[in-house]
């Protein structure tokens, strides 16, 4: 024990010597020598169990997104962003941390939930708590009078998870705001339209948007005889919304969701999946002259929506694909790796999503199994006989039926719609729109058109997928 | 002054009283009363200039992305992600910070550049420095044996911007990795294929991918007589050959790093060589190098790699370069780096210079660092230097004076006379419901000219004009904003669908 402690001390001293030499910019040779000594000492110390804890967890209140969760997330964001773009919104992004001063005094009691960065000799920084204050800073900094923007990013709050079960400390916010002086209620109406479009497209159940107005509330309390000092208390008992400046909010909206409760499933209950309102004191927080820019906006509670969608998929036992691969290039016999590599490369060059197993001589059954697990719909099988005949067999993975024998030499382009049907079906489940609307939404084409003349199977597969 | 200080003290005490009451869960009424008192005191304090500094900046080394920059970023990511998906990669995401312990001991000297979070009584945290260590943690945590994944996210490094001009402290990394035990060099070849596809699609100029192997480097140094303890430092000298001449590099090795001149000369014979697969074959015949077991392994793998690269059609873009010695210590096999051959240097424009836009390699020992049993999962991957690519693309757009649209709006719904707001709202709503990207001005009675100007500024290609006469006739005029010519008269009764047919045709958004 004492020996170990002495060794550790030696290591520490040697480490300090090395650092000292580097600071003095001593000769590289000398430094290298001392470093080598240090490494030898460390090696003597051997593996230190107490130091090499295998820390296999994410920080409290945070989580990784697995490919499956990312697939859900991607689809949800796709619906949301599509809607924002449909309404002509620009998009911005801001740093994950702000100067501590920027956030100070903006969140009242909640300020204690802000993550601070360690003072490491530079500016004092804090992780952003929401996207609204960065937005206000952005507007003031760029002296903007008007903008219609959305911003989707993670924010950070040191919530105590014990109190608020399931509440994450790192979570996505999805904000849309229209800033500027306009004729009354037109942008406000558009925000509500956007909310409705998004919630309809997400197909997470019927919903209701509750609307009120702070001025009506205040007026109502006044004529009912509520003392001024009690206004906030009375209000906050019904308030579930997350606001940065409660006094500033002129009207409030809450979107309540009634989810279809499944057998045995605990209904998510009445809960807000989106909220918003008008708040005119925004830029005034930051503008030296107190210049105000009226603002109306909304925030989509995506984390909640992720859960709902994930839950729904589980209940429906729907398989979520985590890749978009259209065809696996497989071989029926051994020693066909070269041919596989060549074909898959042609498919990639044609913009088709293709894979191959990283094995020189994989078994056909394993390759088919890989397709089934990953949900890959087509498999292009190269076999010795087919090579001689100049064809490649294209099979549907689910039916195992041959889709078409293609003549390699003729390179004729034939169309069929196996994948087409699959794709539209897949899209419909997510967006609730018809194929017509699918085209109207202008999804990017599955593969870009090919410049070089396609030959062989890639043309066939290409035809299948466009 | 003293009065102010006293007031501030009162405010502080009252604040504490309020907090205390809340903790004790006193009656809401009592709390409200004390809060009102607190607010009155604060009001007396008045606006405090020293406290209300208008801090209008982002932290050092970070920046906002304006809509224009986002448009560039979106296009670049679109090309990259499309390529990753084409190759069947899944995508993951990890938290922006990790437990400090997770990052400790992984970055060597660079550890001092890690952003730590303040100890606020909970776990000690640090912002992620790259995406590779989180990846290794993810693999070990989920006990995964294989995965093909990409991850695009920002990472954080407390670089000193004075030393490395233009280096951001918050910047995007774009990683793609294949983890798992597979037949040799197939995934490695696919990584190089991906790199080439991406760089071609981005159209930022001709590029070259340099390839080398850590085992060849180590073996080469060994047979040249480099002492073990000097490997790393000699490596970093050799790596400078892309920026410095051999003479300068040799001087550094001999003069600064104490390498014997004969040894340096021997190294020089090797590291100045680069070429295709023929160089690999030549070195396989090299009497000294072929005696070194490590180098031999590396050379054989490279030979196989080149075979696959030829089948992938990219061997003309690859150069086996013995001076490539880049990167972190965790590479164990093939290493590669893509450089642009020429940035389009226009008159007066300073070329970005020789710089890498993508890099990667094989690293087989990383996951073992996290696994309790030291279980190894071999990995090979690449990282695209997107920030550099953003600059290049932005620069190119400026030179070409190309206008970048920041919205995708296809049609503005406008009115020619007053009192047509209702009709505009109805039509724009129909368009939205049909999935068409449309806008209207938030004005009851906007002037037509202003609406057209709005279109021109935003790059909106079409304007649907509602006028009293047209309403009577049951039509809507659709005009091209640039030519001012009528595109078509659309039948109002068919709602948005006819108009859609026009809009769905040529894509107005420049791709």
From TrEMBL, chain A:
User: Which Pfam families does UniProt cross-reference here?
Assistant: HGTP_anticodon, tRNA-synt_His, WHEP-TRS
Recite the UniProt keywords alphabetically: Aminoacyl-tRNA synthetase, ATP-binding, Cytoplasm, Ligase, Nucleotide-binding, Protein biosynthesis
| Enzyme Commission no | 6.1.1.21
Record carries keyword Phosphoprotein = no
All copies of domain Aminoacyl-transfer RNA synthetases class-II family profile, residue ranges: 37-309
Its job:
Catalyzes the ATP-dependent ligation of histidine to the 3'-end of its cognate tRNA, via the formation of an aminoacyl-adenylate intermediate (His-AMP). Plays a role in axon guidance.
Any one GO MF annotation of this record: ATP binding
A GO CC annotation recorded here is: cytosol
Which PANTHER family does this one have? HISTIDINE--TRNA LIGASE, CYTOPLASMIC, HISTIDYL-TRNA SYNTHETASE
Task: Cite the WHEP-TRS domain residue spans from the record.
Answer: 3-59
- Recorded catalytic activity of this chain's protein: tRNA(His) + L-histidine + ATP = L-histidyl-tRNA(His) + AMP + diphosphate + H(+)
Q: Which family does it belong to?
A: Belongs to the class-II aminoacyl-tRNA synthetase family.
Q: Which GO terms describe its biological process?
A: histidyl-tRNA aminoacylation; mitochondrial translation
Protein name listed in UniProt: Histidine--tRNA ligase, cytoplasmic
PROSITE patterns xrefs: AA_TRNA_LIGASE_II (PS50862), WHEP_TRS_1 (PS00762), WHEP_TRS_2 (PS51185)
SUPFAM superfamilies, per the entry: Class II aaRS ABD-related (SSF52954), Class II aaRS and biotin synthetases (SSF55681), S15/NS1 RNA-binding domain (SSF47060)
Q: How does it assemble?
A: Homodimer.
Automatic annotation (TrEMBL), chain B:
- Where the record annotates domain Aminoacyl-transfer RNA synthetases class-II family profile, the positions are 37-393
Q: Does the keyword Repressor apply?
A: no
One biological process GO term for this chain? histidyl-tRNA aminoacylation
Pfam families, alphabetically? HGTP_anticodon, tRNA-synt_His, WHEP-TRS
Instruction: Please state every residue range assigned to the domain named WHEP-TRS.
Output: 3-59
Q: Does the keyword Iron-sulfur apply?
A: no
Read off the InterPro entries from this record. aa-tRNA-synth_II, aa-tRNA-synth_II/BPL/LPL, Anticodon-bd, Anticodon-bd_dom_sf, His-tRNA-ligase, HisRS-like_core, HisRS/HisZ, HisRS_anticodon
Which catalytic reaction applies to this protein?
tRNA(His) + L-histidine + ATP = L-histidyl-tRNA(His) + AMP + diphosphate + H(+)
Which keywords does this Swiss-Prot/TrEMBL entry list?
Acetylation, Aminoacyl-tRNA synthetase, ATP-binding, Cytoplasm, Ligase, Nucleotide-binding, Phosphoprotein, Protein biosynthesis
Residue positions annotated to bind L-histidine are 130-132, 157, 173, 177, 326, 330-331
CDD domains, A to Z: HisRS-like_core, HisRS_anticodon, HisRS_RNA
| Gene3D superfamilies noted in UniProt | Anticodon-binding domain, Bira Bifunctional Protein, Domain 2, S15/NS1, RNA-binding
A single GO molecular-function term is: ATP binding
Q: Which family does it belong to?
A: Belongs to the class-II aminoacyl-tRNA synthetase family.
Outline the subunit composition.
Answer: Homodimer.
Q: What protein is this chain from?
A: Histidine--tRNA ligase, cytoplasmic
What species is given as this protein's source? Aotus nancymaae (Ma's night monkey)
Protein's gene = HARS1
């Amino acid at each position: 024990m004492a020996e170990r402690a002495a060794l550790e001390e030696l290591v520490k001293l040697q480490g300090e010597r090395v650092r000292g030499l580097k600071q003095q910019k001593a000769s590289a040779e000398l430094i290298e020598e001392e470093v080598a000594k240090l490494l030898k000492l460390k090696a003597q110390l051997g593996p230190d169990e107490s130091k090499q804890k295998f820390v296999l967890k994410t920080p409290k209140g945070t989580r990784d997104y697995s490919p499956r969760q990312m697939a859900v997330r991607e689809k949800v964001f796709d619906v949301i962003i599509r809607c924002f773009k449909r309404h002509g919104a620009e998009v911005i992004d801001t740093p994950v941390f702000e100067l501590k001063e920027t956030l100070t005094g903006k969140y009242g009691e909640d300020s204690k939930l802000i993550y601070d960065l360690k003072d490491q000799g530079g500016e004092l920084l804090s992780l952003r708590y929401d996207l609204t204050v960065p937005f206000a800073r952005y507007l003031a900094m760029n002296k903007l009078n008007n903008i219609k923007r959305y911003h989707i990013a993670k924010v950070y709050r040191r919530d105590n998870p014990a109190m608020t079960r399931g509440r994450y400390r790192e979570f996505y916010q999805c904000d849309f705001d229209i800033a500027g002086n306009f004729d009354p209620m037109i942008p406000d109406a558009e925000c509500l339209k956007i909310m409705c479009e998004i919630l309809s497209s997400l197909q997470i159940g019927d919903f209701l948007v509750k609307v009120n107005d702070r001025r009506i509330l205040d007026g109502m309390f006044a004529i009912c005889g509520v003392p001024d000092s009690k206004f906030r208390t009375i209000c906050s008992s019904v308030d579930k919304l997350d606001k940065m400046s409660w006094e500033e909010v002129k009207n409030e909206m809450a979107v309540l969701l009634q989810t279809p409760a499944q057998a045995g499933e605990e209904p998510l209950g009445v809960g807000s999946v989106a909220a918003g309102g008008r708040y005119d004191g925004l830029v005034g927080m930051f503008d030296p002259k107190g210049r105000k820019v009226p603002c109306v906006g909304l925030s989509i509670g995506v984390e909640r929506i992720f859960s709902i969608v994930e839950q729904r998929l589980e209940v429906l036992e729907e398989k979520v694909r985590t890749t978009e691969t259209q065809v696996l290039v497989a071989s029926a016999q051994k020693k066909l790796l070269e041919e596989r590599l060549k074909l898959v490369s042609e498919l990639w060059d044609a913009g088709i999503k293709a894979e191959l197993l990283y094995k020189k001589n994989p078994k056909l059954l394993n390759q088919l199994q890989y397709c089934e697990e990953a949900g890959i719909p087509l498999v292009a099988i190269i076999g010795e006989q087919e090579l001689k005949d100049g064809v490649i067999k294209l099979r549907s993975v689910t039916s195992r039926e041959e889709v078409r024998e293609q003549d390699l030499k003729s390179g004729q382009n034939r169309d069929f719609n196996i994948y087409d049907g699959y794709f539209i079906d897949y899209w419909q489940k997510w967006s609730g729109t018809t194929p017509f609307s699918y085209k109207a939404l202008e999804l990017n084409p599955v593969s870009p058109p090919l410049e070089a003349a396609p030959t062989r199977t890639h043309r066939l597969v290409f035809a299948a997928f466009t």
